[in-house]
Amino acid sequence: MADLKALSCEMAKLKRQIETVLYISGYQENGDLSGLSDYRQIKSADDWQKVEEYEGIITQAVHLSNF
């Protein structure tokens, strides 16, 4: 049986972490990750790949946080 109290505590932590990631990424201001697409920050194909991966993760996080 799942421990509801422990789960609630972890979910609260996760919510704060998601909010922090959204703030740092600029998602809350722009509604997307265009703030990360600053060409001065992206110096390689690996950087572009990271941004694309982060976009997918953050999109899922936003979707989950709407529950």
Give a description of the structure.
The protein is an all-alpha fold. The protein has a domain at 40-67. Helices cover 70% and strands 0% of the residues. It has helices spanning 4-25, 27-30, 45-65. Helix 1 packs across helix 3. The longest helix has 22 residues, at 4-25. The protein is elongated, with a radius of gyration of 15 Å. The relative contact order is 0.12. The mean pLDDT is 81.
Q: What does the secondary structure layout of this molecule look like, with pairings?
A:
Layout: H1 4-25, H2 27-30, H3 45-65
Helix pairs in contact: 1-3
Looking at how many chains there are and whether they match, the oligomeric state comes to single chain
Number of helices: 3
Low-confidence stretches: none
Proportion of strand residues: under 5%
Number of strands: 0
Shape: elongated
What is the H/E order? HHH
Measured as a percent range, the helix fraction is: over 70%
Supply Rg. 15 Å
